[in-house]
Each structure stands twice: as C-alpha cells, then as structure tokens.
Batch of 2 targets.
Target 1
Amino acid sequence: MSKKLIRPTDIEEAQINAAALADPDNLPLTEKEFQQFRRTPGRPQGSGKKEQVTIRIDTEILEQFRATGSGWQTRINDALRDWIK
C-alpha cells in the first residue's frame, strides 16, 4: 500500500510560513542553515550494481576492515571480487 503525498495549496503554504515566521522560538531555517542537511557533493554516487544483503562475518575480520577507516565495505567487496577471480 503506497501513500500519496498531499501538498499544501499556495494559500495553505502562505499560512504555514506566516505562522512559522510569527514564532520566535521556531523560526524557519535560512538557506545557509538548510544547506547543512543536503548531501555533500564529495560523496560519489553508487554504481547501481550492488544489492543489499545480510551476511555473517567473523568479528575479527569485520574489525580489521572497519579499522582501515571509511570505505571498509568497498574494500570487503574488492576482497571478495579478488577471491572469485
């Protein structure tokens, strides 16, 4: 069952914005503040070729890969790719 998003009308949007601006304790975010929640351009897009799975890996192995820092999941993928060659 999918849910349908109902957007406010222009009048409703104006009323919402007016109410938000009238509340000094809950002002809307400025564009600069809002930018911090946007995806950073430095992170590459995925290839679209990966599938999410659940797999059990020994704790020691997982700790070793995680200890190498960011990108550890890609390194596990690369290690598995090397193994199948």
Target 2
Amino acid sequence: MRTVGRCLLVVLTALTPAALVSTGPAHADDTPPSAAGQPPQTLRFGVRLQGVRQVKRRLRELGFAPGAPGPEYDSALRMAVWAFQKANGLPALDRVDAATRRAMARPARIRPLVPGGSPSRVEIDLTRQLLTVWRDGRAVLVSHVSTGARKSYCDRGHCGFADTPPGDFTVGERVRGWSTGPLGAMYYPVYFNGGIAVHGSTLVPRRPASHGCVRVPLHNAIPLFRMLRPGEPVHVRRPVLSWAGRA
C-alpha cells in the first residue's frame, strides 16, 4: 500500500519540471565582468552575466548543486546560494556579495550532525534548513530545504500539527514522478518517517513552511531520488547554533 504524504498543496500546471523551477525570465544583461583590478561585482537574482557561470562552477565543486550551467541567476542557483550561505554562517540572500565570494574562496568544512554515523547517510538540519548527503564520510550534496512549519493547520478536511520530528530513521518507499496525497503534490518523493518524505516542490521558501515533509528544489529531487537507497540512515536534528551560525 502506498504511503500517504503530509505535504503542502502545490498547484500544477502544464509545464515541464525545468520550467517550473524558473520564477520568471532573467534580465538580458551580458555585461562583461569587472575590469582587472576592480573588485568583483555583486551578482543578484535574475541577472544574466558571465560571472554567474563561475559561481555555478564553484558551487558545483563544493557540492551545492546550482542547476543547469549558463549565465542565468535563476531559481536553482538562488537556492544553491542560500544553501551555501547558510552552511557558512551567512544570511541567506538573493545575491552573491563580497562576503559570499570570500566564503567560496575559503569555505567552511561541512560538519556532521551525527559524528561517527554511517559513512553513507542523510542528515537534515531543521535549524539551518539544510539537507546533506554523505557518501564514504564525505558531504557530496548539500541542499536548501523547507521543513514543517511547526504550527497547527486544517487543509481540505485534514487537521494536524505541521512538524518534521527529529530522530533517526531509514529510507523507505520511493515514488517516481509526481505523486499526489491528501495534502498536495510531491515530485519524486522519498519517504523516511511514515508519511513524511523528502520531495521536490515548486515552493521552497527560506522558512519552514510544509505540513511535515522536507521540500527540496525541483532540480535536486531526481538526484536525491537516485542517491537515497532503501534502508539508508536518515538523521533529523535541530541543533543549537553558535553566533557564527554553526552547531
């Protein structure tokens, strides 16, 4: 019997997943990078600049999937930048500023939520809203997420408390493509705690906003589906952060 998901309603249209990722056309701006000797310009969400390619390349090297290559600062890159900024103790912003560039040059080490855990596992940080996939003791994918909003809800006759409970779980059922439950639609859901799943969504804000599921950007849904295998450990934690934004 298929697991029933507890996730936020997503209104679907006749768009491809790639189209759903975009929040609008990027500005047609092919202005060349700053001249030699000048500080790098701040890159903002929505621009189209050659400097964006370099940012995407660097994020990909560091394990923060930025989506398709190209000069567009699109929604996929926007959420990859958020993930990187949060992982480095910076505020999640809609721009790559000087502080973000410095962190990209000397990034913080990704610290495990579960030291001594299985070499291959998934960790979900409810405080920073980050998901990290570990392989052979190395962080290979870090994604921005939106988890349970931690408030009561009633939606289409279903009422409850929106929460993603901390704990230790394992990967269970995996469903290809779009799946629809009583509380909404999910893209490539991977269940790990009853009706709670990691799944792609068109709506992954900077705050916890789901009914309990772990929403990830659409461009990360299929890679996660392929990476997460049944029985793999999933650790959900709510760490207390230091002033620098790190546990």
